[in-house]
Each structure stands twice: as structure tokens, then as C-alpha cells.
Write a structure and sequence with these properties.
about 300 residues; alpha/beta; Rossmann fold; UDP-galactose 4-epimerase, domain 1; binds NADP nicotinamide-adenine-dinucleotide phosphate
Length: about 300
């Protein structure tokens, strides 16, 4: 009769998944992992600049152009998409409005599920030292929940990959990690682990209307990290935690741009307050292996 029964497997093969932020670190990594699970013809990506998508196009991926700031381009780009992996915007300025465009455009064209990369937090008030990061995520989560689309919210902890930026390129020369984090800890989580989780969630069922705290199974202080780097390199690395006022003054005198000073201070203060020390075994539960440890990661860097 020529009519094929749709099995669970070929149904999921026909699902068209669009990955935004495909030219960034996380997006590239998600694409690498998802291509191990589904064919390139089932994948579409959103890029701001068509030329940056050439490599993906040559792999058989459907490259679509769009910008979170341009609603109509998003509507056109999301047509025919079942699942959207929505990577949060990288610019703080106007991000909330950008995210609203993404959610509304997905809803307008009938996207069935949005998997959104949010940020882990405990304090949701404006008193949080990272409210400048978290506020847009909270709003976006509300819009997703109110949209009527299925949502999966991934509350990412702080990227382990940010550690070299926080610690400073020249830590082996200065011999000191200088951050106002006190004895606070964070369960730094590798971006590559987050990408593998995303590929799993996007290609399996049962994650509709769920929220996952994507964090590793152990939290570390900068003192722990200093000890790891000392052990790896054989050079003594100390940790100094100045007051935030002293930190801001020292960084300003060293010519560090104000935006970075605010970012470093905010995350350190969040660590000191215990905002980021949440641990769980969600990575192992979802992808069957332990989260990458900070020590193993630092060995690849130093
Ligand atoms: P990234 O390398 O900077 O990549 C950001 C991606 O988003 C790029 O592909 C960029 O496109 C795209 N993008 C930015 N603004 C856009 C817009 N207006 N319209 C369409 N696309 C836009 O960042 P990442 O390392 O992959 O991280 C992904 C996201 O996680 C970031 O955007 C940020 O929201 C968040 N983040 C989380 C942590 C954490 O510790 N959890 C740390 C840093 C960032 P272009 O290539 O055209 O620029």
C-alpha cells in the first residue's frame, strides 16, 4: 500500500531541530554532539552572518539567517521547526527584548518545544550580585511558560571554561589568584558537558515542561583551584580575597575595562554568597558519565 507505519525511531528522525548561536562555542559543540545522534538533514541552524555558516552548510545542515533583534527574520527562520535549542544572547544590552522576539517568533510559527539555556541561581531578587545576568533569564523562562509551547529549561551553572579568564592569563607569573570570593564555592561545569546534555535532550523524548539544573557534582573554592594549579605546575599559587572595593580599585588601576570588573566581582560575590555551589548528578543521570572535574579540566589548561 506504500503507507509506512511511523515507528518511534523514524518519528524522531523526522523532527527538525534548529540550533541558535550555532557560530558560538556552545552551539558548535552541540552540533558536534547532535550529529552523532541524528542526520544533518534533521538539523537547522540560525546564524547572523551567512558566511559563518558555510562550513555547516557543507555538512548538509540547513543554514538559516536571523538575528534576535529582527522579529520577521526569526519568524522566517523558524518555519517548519519542531524543536528549538535557544541559546541565550551574548550581549547584555537589549537582551530581554531579543529573547522576547525569539519566544514570540517560535510561537507564531508553531514550534513545538523550546529548549532554553538559562542560568542557575538561588536568589531571584535584584539584590543578587548576578542579577545583571539572571534577570533576563527569569523573564525569558516566564515568557516560555506562558507561551503554551512545550519548554525545557536548562539552568547552567558557571562555565568551567571561564576559569582562565577569572584567574588571569598570567597566574603562573603572579603566583596568586585574586578574586573577592572569600571561601565561597562554585560547581563550575564544562561547556562541552552542557553541549552533550543538550544533544541528548534534543534527540530523546520526555523532557517537555521540565527544568534541569545543569551543574557538576562537586563545588570548589578559589583556594582549592589554587592548590590544583600548584599541584599540576609545581609552582606555588596562592589565593587572595580582597574586599570588593579594593578589587575594583586594583582592577581599574590595572586598566581592566569596567564591564569586566563588574562581571568578575559579580560572579565572585555570588560564589561568596553560595549562589553557585549547587551540585547534583544530573549529568551522570542524563548521559551516563560523570561531569568533567575541575582538576581534569585544569590539567588541560596548565
Ligand atoms: P559565544 O561563543 O559568545 O556564542 C554566542 C552565540 O550567540 C554566537 O553564535 C552569536 O552569533 C549568537 N548571538 C549573539 N547575539 C545574537 C543575536 N542578537 N542574534 C542571533 N544570534 C546571536 O557564547 P557561548 O560560550 O557559546 O555561550 C552561549 C551563551 O551562554 C552566551 O550567549 C551567554 O548567554 C551564555 N553564557 C553563559 C555562561 C555561563 O557561565 N553559564 C558564560 C558565558 C556566556 P555571532 O557568531 O554572530 O556573534
Amino acid at each position: 500500500m506504500g503507507i509506512k507505519l511511523l515507528t518511534k525511531q523514524n518519528r524522531s528522525e523526522m523532527t527538525k531541530i534548529l540550533i541558535t548561536g550555532a557560530t558560538g562555542n556552545l552551539g558548535k559543540s552541540v552540533i558536534k554532539h547532535i550529529l552523532k545522534k541524528t542526520k544533518a538533514e534533521n538539523i537547522a541552524v540560525l546564524v547572523r552572518n551567512i558566511e559563518k555558516g558555510n562550513d555547516l552548510k557543507s555538512q548538509g545542515i540547513d543554514v538559516r539567517v536571523g538575528d534576535y533583534t529582527n522579529y520577521q527574520l526569526l519568524v522566517d527562520a523558524f518555519k517548519g521547526i519542531d524543536k528549538l535549542y535557544f541559546i541565550s544572547g551574548s550581549e547584555f544590552e537589549g537582551r530581554s527584548e531579543q529573547h522576547k522576539n525569539v519566544v514570540n517568533a517560535a510561537k507564531e510559527v508553531g514550534v513545538k518545544q523550546v529548549v532554553y539555556t538559562s542560568f542557575l541561581r538561588k536568589d531571584e531578587t535584584s539584590a543578587s550580585p548576578i542579577s545583571f545576568v539572571v534577570a533576563d533569564h527569569i523573564e525569558t523562562e516566564i515568557w516560555l511558560k506562558e507561551s503554551g509551547m512545550n519548554y525545557t529549561i536548562l539552568k547552567h551553572n558557571l562555565y568551567m571554561d571561564m576559569l582562565p579568564l577569572f584567574i588571569g592569563d598570567n597566574v603562573l607569573e603572579t603566583g596568586v589568584i585574586y578574586q573577592p570570593a572569600g571561601n565561597g564555592k562554585a560547581a563550575f561545569t564544562l561547556r562541552e558537558d552542557m553541549a552533550e546534555i543538550a544533544a541528548h535532550l534534543l534527540t530523546t523524548e520526555g523532557h517537555e515542561n521540565k527544568e534541569y539544573d545543569i551543574t557538576s557534582d562537586k563545588a570548589y573554592s578559589y583556594r582549592d583551584i589554587a592548590a590544583f594549579i600548584s599541584g599540576i605546575t609545581g609552582k606555588t599559587i596562592d589565593y587572595t580575597s580582597p574586599s570588593v572595593e579594593e578589587f575594583n580599585r586594583t582592577m581599574t588601576e590595572a586598566g581592566v575595562p569596567e564591564m569586566y570588573i563588574g562581571l568578575f566581582a559579580g560572579f565572585s560575590l555570588a560564589m561568596e554568597k553560595g549562589e553557585l555551589d549547587e551540585t547534583n548528578s544530573v549529568i551522570e543521570q542524563l548521559i551516563g558519565r560523570k561531569a568533567t572535574s575541575v582538576e581534569d579540566y585544569l590539567k588541560t589548561v596548565y
